[in-house]
UniProtKB/TrEMBL annotation:
It comes from the Bacteria. This is Lipase family protein. InterPro entries: AB_hydrolase_fold, Lipase_secreted.
Length: 430
């Protein structure tokens, strides 16, 4: 369907044309957006679906309180999948603790579970998007959730799966409220007694942007949601220090590492929603940069990545402007970085030693800080290149570890297996 739409142009909204690009930048033509393609499907997108509407009295709800529910059909690659899926719209908080509503999807397999409450894996997908049509509560229904196949191993064991829209209805990205949205989705799940999961043990999983939501929830559980029975968190490929990540991704990078440029376009578009006075496109970007940014403000991760890779945002700063010197930017990035709290539950953290999107230099200082402050941590460096390759390499041990802790087995000893590589290796971000 996507190919047909691209070729014919039927039903795809016209966008503001891209400016001409320098010859050393990404030369891909302007791509159709995923939400435009979703508009052609019979299932209404969240922006058109009144089920997602925030009630006018949202402030009277408590975090995790259910606003409304519904049962939906889950699909994988468009094919109906034989599981029970219940969606919950619930109250949570944004980065400034204002009340907001977002959704979660709770999937229960038909496999009976006896002897204890059915365990739950809260699966945080790498949403990494700027439009609500990219959120898993919608893509589970259309069969386009990009990580859907990864939950099958847990479903086959009889575990329930919680999949929250942890970037909210307005799709912010890499901010501390991701943790609140994850934790409040689990409260909502517990509050729906028809699910039978009120007393379940819970584990968190996520990679890349999904790892961000997972570890933020683990960091905040003790202070924000001690009522959530969290047994462990497995995650990887996650930017820990957003200042270091921005310094890396904002500049032109050689070879494969140039793909990382898209993360700063995504970050700017998302952070400008939470911090518009700081991430101010009118103040920081040229007219050409603002045109590209507007196009990035309603896309899913695939076309954001294709459009933003090998296109450094620093080439579109106003003369004399940088993220480092723009008032408030560094402060926001520091405040939204990991390490504000040390998780009080077991962790399994993996990262590739040659990750072109999130280099080890962005991660290892926080790993060391966790370790030195006594986190119950198992950190493993995967000796493979490339961000997506490491997602697949880290997933099997994460599944095994989560399956063990949910069945009551010990999480294993603390491990810090980080590679200390010589500077002559010249890895990304070093």
């Amino acid at each position: 369907m996507a190919v047909a739409v691209v070729v014919s142009g039927v039903g795809v909204a016209a966008a503001e044309p891209y400016p001409p690009f320098p010859p050393d930048q990404n030369q891909l033509p302007q791509l159709p957006t995923e939400p435009d393609l979703y508009d052609l499907l019979p299932i209404p997108t969240p922006s058109e679906d009144p089920w997602y509407d925030t009630p006018s009295d949202i402030g009277s709800y408590v975090p995790g309180q259910i606003i409304r529910t519904r049962n939906v059909q889950t699909r994988v690659l468009g094919i109906p999948f034989p599981v029970d899926t219940k969606q919950l719209l619930y109250r949570t908080n944004d980065v400034r603790d204002n009340p907001i509503a977002t959704a979660t999807s709770v999937i229960t397999p038909g496999i009976p579970w006896q002897g204890s409450p059915r365990p739950v894996v809260s699966f945080q997908e790498a949403i990494d998007a700027t439009n609500s049509a990219c959120n898993p509560s919608y893509t589970l229904q259309t069969g386009t959730m990009k990580e859907a196949a990864l939950v099958v191993g847990w479903l086959a064991q009889g575990f329930a799966i919680n999949i929250p829209d942890f970037d909210g209805q307005f799709n912010t990205f890499n901010t501390q409220d991701e943790g609140k949205m994850v934790l409040d989705s689990l409260r909502a799940m517990k509050n729906d007694t028809t699910l039978g999961l009120t007393n379940s043990g819970i584990a968190l999983y996520g990679y890349s942007g999904g790892g961000s939501g997972s570890i933020r929830a683990a960091e905040q559980r003790a202070t924000y949601a001690p009522d959530v029975n969290l047994l462990g968190t497995a995650f990887g490929g996650t930017p820990a220090d957003l200042r270091a990540q921005a310094r890396y991704a904002v500049l032109q990078q050689p070879g494969l590492t140039g793909i990382s440029n898209f993360t700063m376009w995504l970050g700017f578009a998302s952070l400008s929603r939470e911090f518009p006075d700081v991430f101010d496109a009118e103040e920081l970007l040229t007219p050409e940069g603002r045109t590209i940014l507007r196009d990035m403000e309603s896309r899913c991760v695939y076309t954001i990545a294709l459009s933003g890779m090998y296109r450094p945002i620093s080439d579109y700063f106003q003369p004399g402007k940088t993220l480092e010197t723009a008032p408030g930017v560094v402060d926001v990035l520091e405040a939204q970085s990991l390490g504000k709290h040390i998780p009080d539950t077991p962790l399994f953290w993996f990262h590739g030693m040659w990750d072109e999107l999130i280099p080890p230099a962005v991660v290892l200082p926080t790993v060391n800080d966790y370790w030195n402050r006594g986190a119950d941590l198992r950190f493993v460096t995967i000796p493979l290149p490339e961000h997506v390759v490491n997602a697949f390499a880290g997933w099997p041990p994460a599944v095994a570890w989560i399956s063990a802790v949910l069945r009551g087995l010990p999480p294993g000893p603390r491990i810090k297996a980080d590679f200390q590589l010589p500077a002559s290796w010249n890895l990304p971000g070093s």
